[in-house]
Write a structure and sequence with these properties.
It is built from 21 helices and ten strands. The chain has 449 residues and is an alpha+beta fold. The protein has two domains: 225 residues, no CATH class; 154 residues, no CATH class. The strands form three sheets. Strands 1, 2, 3, 4, 5 and 6 form a six-stranded antiparallel sheet that branches. A two-stranded antiparallel ribbon has the order 7-8. It is globular.
Length: 449
């Protein structure tokens, strides 16, 4: 009997020892990772919230002061800004606006964006209703220059006139940029505010016990949907039943029309199509982003998504921390991935894992696992980081015919060819199965043609 008790004690001590070693990496997310999976079609929005209406972020801020303050300093709060209230929100040099511009600063009412580019909304009557249009020039913040802007040139180019003056923001921009517009058709708030992620809050504001949608309390796969509603390139959901884009003349929506947080996003959103090996305007042949706002398209194909890691594990949803311009560095990744973690890295030191000096760019997680593959406009530099997370070898980049500058190795070692860089990795003995798969795909496609 004593031997059994001793054995049990040693087992408990062993389990405790393993837990102590790995706890800093796994334990903080244990509750989230083990939440019940309910599937993409379930409606998670609280029943009481379904009859609520939007009240605006100031109402939320009365009780949630810290979150409101953090959000106020984030870029989400400044997505749409009123020029009439604060002319200082304009970042463009209007003294250099090209002569063939179809708008003036005096006509513009709202700005869209300011971090990478800025566009301007002008009041207009379109298709019989009061709306807004966009100017035919946008300001590229990254280059400090005006550049032509043709808002109809995306997937919906056959659904709208090729004329800025007849292109409505209501169908293409406002669903994501104005709180409340996606489900009500009303521009409740000039921002991506609290209720864009939590849903309408009138009942919760009146009676705090009345539930409001909190994504982190549910299935982790579903948690991501508050971000994916806008950070995933899409098509109009009606194309599922009628693929003729011309049937949506003046009606095509570039956002999940009717969606509110907690509802089944897949019921309102059709993801932008991607077939491995096929390059599109939005994706490179290996699925990496060519444009901004494709984080979700890449992430849903990643192992971390499938295992329950969420956007908010890396990004504070109120402060919008850990951004492309201000990354938090390796400490963000090593919250989960450490050298004593079951999920790796599986080497003893950082230098063994990266084959680079610990204080070099080559040992920064995001440089290898989140290389810059996309642009904010066709004339912008590569600054959009991939959210595929797996390491893409030079051989894969070359096999798919992707520009060398999209490859993590080439980004720092431009003096070498992709072939030379691949030979170095081969000497390290790294896993090459994905590269071989890409090369095989490339060769077979050439043979077939």
């Amino acid at each position: 009997m004593k031997q059994i008790i001793i054995a049990i004690l040693f087992t408990i001590l062993g389990v405790m020892l393993v837990w102590i070693v790995f706890e800093p990496k796994i334990a903080p997310y244990y509750v989230q990772l083990t939440k019940t999976r309910v599937g993409l079609s379930a409606d998670l929005q609280p029943k009481e919230q379904k009859t609520s209406h939007f009240v605006g972020s100031k109402t939320c801020g009365k009780c949630h002061e810290e979150n409101y303050r953090d959000w106020k300093h984030s870029m989400h709060s400044r997505m749409i800004q009123d020029i009439r209230k604060d002319p200082g929100v304009v970042v463009a040099d209007f003294s250099k606006l090209p002569e063939d511009a179809d708008f003036t600063l005096k006509e513009a009412v709202y700005t869209i964006g300011s971090k990478f580019k800025q566009r301007y909304m002008i009041p207009a009557k379109i298709d019989g209703k009061e709306d807004f249009r966009l100017g035919n020039y946008q300001w590229n913040v990254q280059t400090g220059k005006w550049q032509r802007f043709k808002p109809w040139k995306y997937w919906y180019h056959d659904a709208y006139p090729h004329d800025n003056r007849r292109f409505p923001t209501s169908n293409t921009c406002d669903g994501c940029h104005f709180t409340g517009y996606m489900s009500t058709g009303k521009r409740v708030e000039l921002a991506i505010a609290c209720e864009s992620c939590h849903g309408p809050g009138s009942k919760h504001a009146k009676t705090p016990e009345s539930p409001i949608y909190r994504a982190s309390m549910y299935d982790p796969i579903r948690t991501n949907e508050v971000c994916l509603q806008c950070h995933m390139r899409n098509r109009d959901n009606r194309l599922k039943t009628n693929p003729d884009i011309k049937s949506l003349w003046m009606k095509a929506k570039d956002y999940p029309d009717g969606y509110e947080p907690g509802r089944s996003l897949i019921a309102f959103k059709m993801a932008a199509p991607f077939v491995p090996g096929n390059e599109t305007k939005e994706f490179w042949p290996n699925g990496a982003a060519k444009k901004n706002r494709t984080q979700g398209n890449e992430f849903v194909r990643d192992a971390m998504y499938q295992h329950g890691i969420t956007c908010i594990n890396c990004h504070d949803p109120h402060r919008l921390s850990n951004t492309a311009k201000k990354p938090e560095g390796n400490r963000s990744c090593m919250k989960c991935h450490g050298f004593n973690s079951l999920i790796g890295p599986h080497q003893a030191t950082l230098e063994e894992h990266t084959h680079h000096k610990a204080d070099s760019n080559g040992s920064r997680c995001i440089e290898c696992h989140m290389p810059k593959t996309g642009r904010h406009t066709g004339k912008s530099p590569l600054t959009v980081r991939s959210h595929m997370f797996r390491f893409v070898t030079p051989a894969e980049t070359e096999a798919y015919g992707m520009p060398p500058e999209t490859n993590a190795c080439y980004h720092c070692h431009k003096e070498k060819s992709l072939e030379e860089l691949q030979s170095v990795i081969d000497k390290w003995g790294e896993d090459q199965w994905v590269s071989q798969e890409a090369i095989s795909h490339y060769i077979l496609n050439r043979v077939d043609k």
